[in-house]
Amino acid sequence: MAARAQHSGPAANGGGAPALLPLLLLLLSAAAIIPRGDGQNLITEDVTVVEGDVATISCRVKNSDDSVIQLLNPNRQTIYFRDFRPLKDSRFQLVNFSNSELRVSLTNVSISDEGRYFCQLYTDPPQEIYTTITVLVPPRNLVIDIQKEIAVEGEEIELNCTAMASRPATTIRWFKGNKELTGKSEVEQWSDMYTVTSQLLLKVGREDDGVPVICLVDHPAVKDLQTQRYLEVMYKPQVRVSQNYPVQGLTREGEPLELTCAAFGKPQPTDMRWLRVDDEMPQHVVVSGSNLLISNLNKTDNGTYRCEASNAVGKSHADYMLFVYDTTATTEPAVHGFTQLPNSAEELDYGDLSDSRAGEEGAIRSVDHAVVGGVVAVVVFAMLCLLIILGRYFARHKGTYFTHEAKGADDAADADTAIINAEGGQNNSEEKKEYFI
Length: 437
What we know:
By secondary structure, this protein is an alpha+beta fold. Helices cover 18% and strands 39% of the residues.
């Protein structure tokens, strides 16, 4: 204890510390080193810190007997001896010093500060234990590069997300809206840093226009780091025909018909026209922009009317099937008015077409039942007529036949007498008559 007092006295006075310090370091280096975890009194913990933050190193003593505590850096340079800091690095600051603890903070941590720091305790024999500082480096840049700024529906585009200069290597995840997608990542190492690039191949449709594609980073040094790009997709027009008048009900002779064509696309359709499929447009039909008007319907107007729209991507159309009914018609047909028939499967609006198709299928089933019923009725009627005719025929050719050949033979005693007594006998055979009843 006296020797420890002599060592600490000059250090406090500032007189002999420079001369004694190399000797102390030499003695410490020659001292027996106790591996981490084997010391009975020294306790410390590993430290993980993000680059630029503060790391705190704590050397604690259980059952302290006032022995001297010292902290050394990975190069075996003394950072603190008791409460004295020989190392000229102002980033190290004393947080707490007592007989049972030496706690030091390191500000503005960098990669160069990573490594093992040693806690030493002057006992007999001396004890030593180390703590490891691990420095995490978040990615400095997170960028999405897209192959084509503007895509056309049906195309496959390539997106690349790059997370640069991180430690450890990052994990990149992709999302389109709320749906997670799978990309392919590559890792490049430069010195102690890692650069990760993830590639995503995405086939786009019209429903993807304006949807964000998100690149999200999983890294222990950062939370919720992400960047996003909004997709811009061009697509052919969607065309819809609506019946303005009559709003509901039959299209009857003499009444007006008004149709409106609406088209949506990207870019917005600039060319829209009406035509009559497989026939010329009637002269009395008035077309004004997207509207078609027939002021006085007649049965020559029956047919399919088509609205076509086009933009820089392509052309689409929708059809309206017109059937003009008599003025006496009072019931709504199973199929009436328009059906929209886009010219490709990609343009189908399933919600709009489902009701129309259901009506068409119902109408077909109704027609089939009516035809079958009519055929059955005709067959039954024909069979009844045939039975009546056959009955009358058999009735006219069925009866009992009576002749006068045996008249008077009932009272004869024998056969010869009966023949002789028969009316007319053999002499009058030419007068025999038959009667049909």
